[in-house]
């Protein structure tokens, strides 16, 4: 993962409450 993807992840998913939910969405979007 590059820096741009990391920043996108942090910004886009910052609204999500739980770490588990973030990880699930991340896998759905980028796997």
Description:
With 31 residues, the protein is mainly alpha-helical. It has one domain. The protein is built from two helices and no strands. It is flat.
Radius of gyration: 9 Å
For the record, give the distance between the C-alpha atoms at the N and C termini, rounded to a whole number.
11 Å
User: How much strand?
Assistant: under 5%
Shape: flat
How many runs of DSSP E, i.e. beta strands?
0
Instruction: Summarize the main sheet.
Output: none
Write the H/E string, N to C: HH
What's the helix and strand layout?
Blueprint lengths: L2 H10 L6 H12 L1
Provide a concise account of the structure shown.
The chain is mainly α. It has two helices and no strands. The longest helix is centred in the C-terminal third of the chain and has 12 residues.
């Amino acid at each position: 993962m590059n820096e741009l993807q990391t920043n996108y992840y942090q910004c886009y998913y910052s609204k999500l409450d739980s770490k588990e939910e973030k990880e699930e969405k991340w896998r759905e979007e980028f796997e």
